[in-house]
């Protein structure tokens, strides 16, 4: 069977009774509740992609470990999350989206408790990886449950709200993490998930209807899923370890070479597997390919800058954990305020214009940090303007990318398309953290303002590159059009 004949992994073609998805029920009140519950599920799992960042330095001192070692507390979650998102969609299709959503939320709560009680960094990293497995079950199942409640004409609105909640979660994570770290302990960064998850499980059992794909059978290719995680893991290892071991160190070289060799193996395996972990046919859609490339670039810049700024405020300006989070909170506030509006704006003026504006705004904010921030703490004049600009850039970008990634796909491929886009975003998180640790250039915190200025330049360039990816098709079209005389 060739790629064109295979059913895409993670489709949502039918309800449990076999009715087509496009004939989903129109009960607005019920749909609103399901949207709220599904968005809350996405919020809590995406929250954990950034809530740990603010406590990075605190946990490092608590376990007496290095930045490079502790980076795996962040990367273990992002790597496993990215690798499991696409297979999780197929699991939800086969065994029921409600069942998998409930199992995912419950397991996420259990692993969050293990993270909060971890006696050492090794246990914490392991628990984070397991936490990500269950988080991955939540994302595609929550979106599928939401989409089943909306008619095709309103589905883009639901996707926009769901995506906005995910973006807001990533943005507000550090502030919430700071409050818990400052007033309780960093362990409550993880333990807070338990009561929230309990509420979701109780309401989910009452409000959600089961749906599944009767044609779903088997699971995606396990080797493909392994390669999805292995490639960025090898790359991340080499980027993180390069500065301390030396770029010519045999282990660092092996990591880079291994990642380079594994990529074509993954593409070959995906083209041959009976149930590929990723449907490459989706990338024939130019918009889908462009959005995912832009998502990878922008997420690398976003997650890297988020961690860099929090570390800078604590080590260079000597802010407390809470003060550092509050000093950076203006950006997340902007994201939360405009996230939903930007998805509506993109439907009016087109996603390219909004994403390009977001990339330019982001770049200006990063350049402001690089050019005007120094060792003297002047928050109002030297920090706040650039925090607002980067927040505006995030709000114009992350929510719009989530909706634009699936906008041109058939409804049956919304879930898999969204899962792939989320995977690219999580891979960007891994690369962003790894690049930051590498540019930090030392295993000790506090490398000096000059190092951070270099870091801000790099993340400005990556954010601008995400915008260029969106602009290139228009530039090509303008260049190929006959000139008017």
From TrEMBL:
Pfam families: MFS_1. GO terms for biological process: response to antibiotic. The keyword Transmembrane helix applies. The chain crosses the membrane at residues 33-56, 68-88, 100-123, 129-147, 159-180, 186-203, 223-240, 252-270, 291-312, 324-342, 354-373, 385-407, 427-443, 455-475. The keyword Membrane applies. It is found in: Cell membrane. It comes from the Bacteria. It is a multi-pass membrane protein. Its main location: membrane. Residues 34-478 form the Major facilitator superfamily (MFS) profile domain. Keywords: Antibiotic resistance, Membrane, Transmembrane, Transmembrane helix. InterPro entries: MFS, MFS_dom, MFS_trans_sf, Sugar_transporter_CS. One of its GO terms (molecular function) is transmembrane transporter activity. Residues 1-21 are annotated as: Disordered. One of its GO terms (cellular component) is plasma membrane. PANTHER family: CONSERVED TWO-DOMAIN MEMBRANE PROTEIN-RELATED, MAJOR FACILITATOR SUPERFAMILY MULTIDRUG TRANSPORTER MFSC. This is MFS transporter.
């Amino acid at each position: 069977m060739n790629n064109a004949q295979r059913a895409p992994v993670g489709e949502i073609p039918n309800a449990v009774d076999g009715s087509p998805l496009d004939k989903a029920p129109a009960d607005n009140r019920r749909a609103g509740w399901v949207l709220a519950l599904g968005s809350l599920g996405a919020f809590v799992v995406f929250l954990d992609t950034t809530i740990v960042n603010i406590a990075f330095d605190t946990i490092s001192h608590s376990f007496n470990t290095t930045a490079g070692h502790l980076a795996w507390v962040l990367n273990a979650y992002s790597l496993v999350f990215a690798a499991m998102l696409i297979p999780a969609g197929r699991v939800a299709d086969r065994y029921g989206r409600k069942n998998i959503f409930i199992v995912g939320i419950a397991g996420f709560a259990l692993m969050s408790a293990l993270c909060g009680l971890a006696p050492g960094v090794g246990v914490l990293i392991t628990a984070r990886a397991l936490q990500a497995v269950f988080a991955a079950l939540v994302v595609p199942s929550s979106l599928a449950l939401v989409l089943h409640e909306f008619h095709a004409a309103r589905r883009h609105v639901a996707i926009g709200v769901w995506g906005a909640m995910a973006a807001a979660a990533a943005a507000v994570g550090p502030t919430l993490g700071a409050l818990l770290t400052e007033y309780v302990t960093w362990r409550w960064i993880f333990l807070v998930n338990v009561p929230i998850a309990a509420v979701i499980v109780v309401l989910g059992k009452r409000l959600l209807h089961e749906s599944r794909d009767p044609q779903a059978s088997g699971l995606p290719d396990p080797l493909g899923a392994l390669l999805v995680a292995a490639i960025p893991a090898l790359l991340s290892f080499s980027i993180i370890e390069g500065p301390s071991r030396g770029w010519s160190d045999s282990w660092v070289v092996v990591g880079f070479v291994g990642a380079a060799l594994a990529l074509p193996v993954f593409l070959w395996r995906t083209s041959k597997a009976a149930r590929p972990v990723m449907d490459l046919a989706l990338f024939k859609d130019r918009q889908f390919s462009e959005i995912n490339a832009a998502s990878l670039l922008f997420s690398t810049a976003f997650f890297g800058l988020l961690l860099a700024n929090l570390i800078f405020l604590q080590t260079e300006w000597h802010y407390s954990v809470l003060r550092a989070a509050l000093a950076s909170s203006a950006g997340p506030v902007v994201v939360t305020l405009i996230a939903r509006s930007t998805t509506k704006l993109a439907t009016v003026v087109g996603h390219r214009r909004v994403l390009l504006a977001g990339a330019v705004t982001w770049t200006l904010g990063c350049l402001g940090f690089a050019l005007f921030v120094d060792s003297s703490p002047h928050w109002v004049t030297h920090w706040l303007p650039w925090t607002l600009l980067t927040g505006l850039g995030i709000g114009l970008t992350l929510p719009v990318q989530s909706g634009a990634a699936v906008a041109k796909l058939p409804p049956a491929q919304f879930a898999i398309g969204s899962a792939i886009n989320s995977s690219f975003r999580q891979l960007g998180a891994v690369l962003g953290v790894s690049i930051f640790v590498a540019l930090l250039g030392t295993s000790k915190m506090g490398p000096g303002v000059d190092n951070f200025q270099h870091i801000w330049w790099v993340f400005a360039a990556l954010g601008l590159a995400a915008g260029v990816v969106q602009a290139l098709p228009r530039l090509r079209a303008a260049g190929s059009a006959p000139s008017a005389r």
